[in-house]
Amino acid sequence: GAVVSQHPSRVICKSGTSVKIECRSLDFQATTMFWYRQFPKKSLMLMATSNEGSKATYEQGVEKDKFLINHASLTLSTLTVTSAHPEDSSFYICSASSASGWTDTQYFGPGTRLTVL
Amino acid sequence: RKEVEQDPGPFNVPEGATVAFNCTYSNSASQSFFWYRQDCRKEPKLLMSVYSSGNEDGRFTAQLNRASQYISLLIRDSKLSDSATYLCVVNKDSTLGRLYFGRGTQLTVWP
Questions:
Q1: Which of B7, B11, B52, B85 has the fewest CB atoms inside 10 Å of its own CB, making it the most exposed?
Q2: Best residue in A32, A104, A108 to probe B by mutation, most B CBs within 10 Å?
């Protein structure tokens, strides 16, 4: 199957700093990338959908100024958590889709575990 | 009401057992349905898509009942390696790729 990588896999930062997470599709061109967040023992929650070259579409309740998403190429999307606070500590997972037409197959990255002190 | 509801379990079964998970979804317009599995502290991995006619992949059988907005997963001859959390997933709406994830059902298979 298709491979999606994320970097870093784990990050610990101080409150108030910004953290950038990269998501790369390694062997296919991802027309659409998705960012999810998962708190312990909770379900994955979609944060935003990004299409290459256009602005991301954020889900209700997700602050676009806090979670900056850039999808500059067909193989790379980045999520920047600005001015991170302890409540932003979570497991952030990206997925990528090469969908053209009606298919929802998404390939997930391994996730980034963010801990804000 | 949550978009996708699952019994969180845990289900603890011996090797070789048959176990079934159920899931209900609230959006009658949902078109695509999936089961994913997620191991502890890992990303979810697609187990199988769910089709209206029902489908089988080895020891795994998925069923969809659109009238009742109900999805099921049956695992036969459970293996130790089946221990994981099983996520019921439906597409959020007609927009491609926006998925609702259930909270997951935890399965532990013991020897």
A1: B52
A2: A104
